[in-house]
TrEMBL record:
Residues 86-232 form the Hemerythrin-like domain. Transmembrane segments: none annotated. It comes from Clostridium simiarum. InterPro entries: Hemerythrin-like, RIC_family. The lineage of its organism: Bacteria, Bacillati, Bacillota, Clostridia, Eubacteriales. It comes from the Bacteria. This is Iron-sulfur cluster repair di-iron protein. Its main location: cytoplasm. Keywords: Cytoplasm, Iron, Metal-binding. It is found in: Cytoplasm.
Length: 232
């Protein structure tokens, strides 16, 4: 059987073909969301990994995925409005809920564990505060500006909307990069979202929720950068 996944493909394309590859990329710390336009081979070499081994593994897992008859949607073949609806209902809703819950929980953990873990938690608190503010504004701009423009363009095909859409896309991708940078800082400060030894349930939970937010944002950003924006 010919290999479906190869080194020359863009990371975003690999995830579109085989969605579960995102889990492998997460384990390897490969940025397939903001870095979705990079080739698989380049990304692996940059991490000092053997491309042949990883490509072989990806193809083996892809074959298992196909044989399992797992259902998935290749969003590249869908309409922009359908993808935007999925982004809104799946990722925007999740992000808003998690930002609110993490905010309250993190403040509680900061207060209770300030004496022993204050330095770490203050860094996490500040970084999360910046991320929360930027993401909330980002979501509103997508919902009120970018997505409605793309919808009108899809419905009318009027080229006059393209210039404004491209401007919003450039701004959106810059904001995606900024969010990605904050998440990388949070990874470092929290040792990949691992609470200190002996930490209480709430401490572990807030780090788990931050990790969950990061993984969902990776998929969210991938769907926009590597799929939706390429439809325009």
């Amino acid at each position: 059987m010919d290999k479906v996944i190869h080194e020359g493909q863009k990371l975003g394309e690999v995830v579109s073909i085989f969605p579960k590859s995102s889990e492998i990329f997460n384990e390897l710390k490969i940025d397939y969301c903001c870095g979705g336009h990079d080739s698989l081979g380049e990304a692996l070499k940059e991490k000092g990994l053997n491309p042949n081994d990883i490509v072989e593994k990806l193809n083996e897992e892809y074959e298992k995925f196909i044989k399992s008859n797992s259902e998935y949607r290749d969003w590249r073949k869908e309409k922009p409005t359908d993808l935007m609806e999925n982004i809104l209902n799946t990722h925007h809703s999740f992000t808003k809920k998690e930002l609110k819950e993490i905010d309250a929980l993190l403040f509680k953990v900061l207060k209770v564990h300030f004496k022993h873990h204050g330095a770490e938690l203050m860094k996490v608190h500040r970084l999360f505060g910046t991320l929360k503010t930027e993401l909330e504004e980002h979501l509103i701009k997508e919902e009120e500006n970018l997505f409605p423009l793309i919808k009108v363009y899809e419905e009318t095909g009027n080229e006059k909307y393209k210039e404004d859409i491209y401007k919003f896309i450039r701004d959106t991708e810059d904001e995606h990069d900024a969010a990605g940078d904050i998440l990388k800082e949070l990874e470092q400060v929290t040792r990949d979202f691992k609470a200190p030894e002996g930490a209480c349930t709430s401490f572990k939970l807030v780090y788990d929720k931050l990790h969950g937010l990061e993984k969902d944002l990776f998929i969210h950003i991938y769907k926009e950068n590597s799929v939706l924006f390429n439809m325009i």
